[in-house]
Design brief:
Low-confidence stretches: 1-13, 19-24, 26-35
CATH architecture of one domain: Orthogonal Bundle
Radius of gyration: 22 Å
EC number: 2.3.1.48
Number of helices: 10
Mean pLDDT: 80
Order of helices and strands: HHHEEHEEHEEEEHEHHHEEH
GO cellular component, one term: NuA4 histone acetyltransferase complex
Enzyme class: transferase
Structural class: alpha+beta
Bound molecules: zinc ion
GO biological process, one term: regulation of DNA-templated transcription
CATH class of one domain: Mainly Alpha
Largest sheet: 5 strands, antiparallel
Oligomer: single chain
GO molecular function: histone H4K16 acetyltransferase activity; zinc ion binding
Strand content: 15-25%
Number of strands: 11
Length: about 300
């Protein structure tokens, strides 16, 4: 990926060479266009032996003492509005269009790019909401919110995408937070009464994560309906899609990946998936450590998406 538009390269080089390592100048540079930040970032990563990143606000420096100074004065709170709170977990909605938080969104995007090889970075964060999941920590006299991961959502997606980019930071992966963030993205679809999907194409890892999510939701829907006697014996893909707010193509893709027994009716020319309840239960997560609790949603309903 080319980080520097060729017509701006010389100008960027001049600014880069004039960069002072003092904090004020450093931060004023950061407020420039993200194209420039990307350029500086790339130069820093390439030339520096270490890059120091604040995990509260994602500002960065190659100078550890500068980062130390920053850490002592960092606000350590996530900007934006809390839209979900359960125990010490919180989800914040951060509007990339607001001056005070634009830098946070840009730095978060840059840092995320380090873990998302196949994803294009979003230069213009103002068209997105960032949903940031954090855990509240209390250490001695200091309180802070440690950021676990986030997903971004385009404010106006003409393709009905409910998620543009998702990341759980490496130290938190494998604990169900990715499934929780995906669940939030579909909860927003439900509140908007839309049937939506993540932005495509998905990476191989992204597709795996989504397949796991779709399969667990389908399995829970059918098994719960069966056990409570409230579900039909036969489900159509469209009916599942309407209830789960998952696109019919994604429902079908998940069903196909379950390797179910498919029977074709010669009379109606339709295909029927046959599956036992026991088999479906295999797709329901055993550990439901992090489950979206609708009772804990704050303000999400009345917000405009
Ligand atoms: Zn900071």
């Amino acid at each position: 990926m080319s980080l520097i538009p060729s017509n701006y390269a010389n100008e960027f080089c001049d600014i880069y060479n004039s960069l002072d390592s003092t904090r004020n100048q450093w931060e004023s540079r950061l407020l420039m266009k993200l194209d420039l930040i990307m350029f500086i970032w790339a130069k820093l990563v390439k030339n520096a032996s270490s890059l120091y990143v604040c995990l509260q606000c994602f500002k960065y420096s190659i100078d550890p003492s500068q980062m130390e100074i920053h850490r002592s004065s960092c606000d350590k709170s996530v900007p934006g509005q809390s839209v979900y709170c359960k125990k010490n977990y919180k989800l914040f909605r951060v509007d990339g269009d607001q001056d005070k938080v634009m830098l946070f969104c840009q730095c978060l995007s840059l840092f995320a790019k380090m873990f998302l090889d196949e994803k294009t970075i979003y230069y213009d964060v103002d068209g997105f909401y960032f949903y940031v999941l954090g855990v509240f920590r209390q250490r001695a006299t200091e309180t802070s919110t440690e950021i676990i991961g986030f997903f971004s959502r385009e404010k106006r997606s003409w393709d009905e995408y409910n998620l543009a980019c998702i990341l759980v930071f490496p130290q938190f992966q494998g604990r169900g937070y990715g499934q929780l963030l995906i669940d939030f993205s579909y909860e927003i679809s439900r509140l908007r009464n839309k049937i939506e999907s993540p932005e495509s194409p998905l990476s191989a890892q992204g597709l795996n994560t989504y397949q796991k999510y779709w399969k667990s939701k389908i399995a829970q829907l059918v098994v719960n309906g069966c056990e409570t006697g409230t579900a039909p014996e036969k489900w159509s893909i469209n009916a599942m899609s309407q209830i789960l707010h998952i696109r019919p193509e994604d429902v079908e893709s998940a069903l196909l990946s379950m390797n179910l027994n498919i029977q074709k009716s010669l009379i109606t020319n339709t295909e029927v998936y046959r599956v036992s309840k026991a088999r479906l239960k295999e797709y329901i997560p055993k550990k439901t450590q992090h489950v979206l609790d609708r009772k804990c949603l704050e303000h999400l309903k009345e917000m405009t998406y």
